[in-house]
């Protein structure tokens, strides 16, 4: 029974975070910003005023596909955020530019996360192979290898948290400094950014819980 409850919790946590994000984003994407400028213009304005004229702003396909690529120096905004002048789009655009500013300032956590990407791409695919072999064959060594590989992914997610929170903090500072948002928009923009951050917190919580469960299984396997 406890096993079932555990997996229900694992499902509920990220589902709740995604629901909160979609509801919050949906609400504030319908509210036009008082500045009247699109997400693309918000991004371009903040980038230029921080001397990042070499960073491009492009449109990205897909819902909430917004991201910053440190390799290509590109801020990609989903169609709605790119073209519309909404409070949500303004917040998201500023957040992605926050990552560009982190990159320009050589923010340590962003650099570390970037260096871990190739390692995590390999370890995340291999970890569950060893974990499943270890569990089904009762081979503790295989399970330990899987746990170590999985731990690299968990570390990546833990490092992602300060990167995302810092980008949001930078976003709010930039929006206020350049008078892009006014009055209640500050509170609304913070809600959008907080909801987005919760998806990372939820994913990290699930990953840590699963790693702890596997470590407990490994410990009990060795005892028996």
TrEMBL record:
The chain crosses the membrane at residues 6-22, 142-163, 192-218. Keywords: Membrane, Transmembrane, Transmembrane helix. The keyword Membrane applies. The keyword Glycoprotein does not apply. It comes from the Bacteria. Pfam families: Zn_peptidase_2. InterPro entries: Zn_peptidase_2 (IPR007395). This is Putative neutral zinc metallopeptidase. It comes from Planococcus massiliensis.
């Amino acid at each position: 029974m406890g096993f079932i409850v555990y997996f229900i919790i694992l499902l509920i946590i990220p589902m709740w975070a995604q629901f909160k994000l979609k509801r919050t984003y949906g609400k504030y994407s319908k509210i036009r910003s008082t500045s009247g400028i699109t997400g693309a213009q918000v991004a371009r304005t903040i980038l230029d005023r921080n001397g990042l004229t070499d960073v491009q702003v492009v449109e990205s396909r897909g819902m909430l596909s917004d991201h910053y690529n440190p390799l290509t120096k590109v801020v990609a905004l989903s169609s709605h955020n790119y073209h519309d002048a909404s409070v949500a789009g303004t917040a998201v655009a500023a957040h992605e530019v926050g990552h560009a500013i982190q990159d320009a300032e050589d923010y340590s956590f962003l650099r570390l996360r970037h260096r871990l990407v190739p390692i995590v791409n390999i370890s995340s695919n291999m970890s569950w192979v060893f974990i499943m072999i270890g569990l089904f064959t009762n081979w503790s060594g295989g399970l330990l290898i899987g746990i170590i590989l999985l731990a690299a992914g968990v570390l990546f997610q833990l490092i992602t948290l300060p990167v995302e929170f810092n980008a949001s903090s930078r976003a709010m500072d930039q929006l206020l400094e350049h008078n892009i948002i006014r009055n209640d928009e500050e509170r609304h923009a913070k809600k959008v950014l907080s909801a987005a951050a919760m998806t990372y917190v939820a994913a990290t919580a699930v990953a840590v819980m699963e790693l702890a469960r596997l470590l407990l299984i490994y410990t009990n396997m060795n005892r028996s």
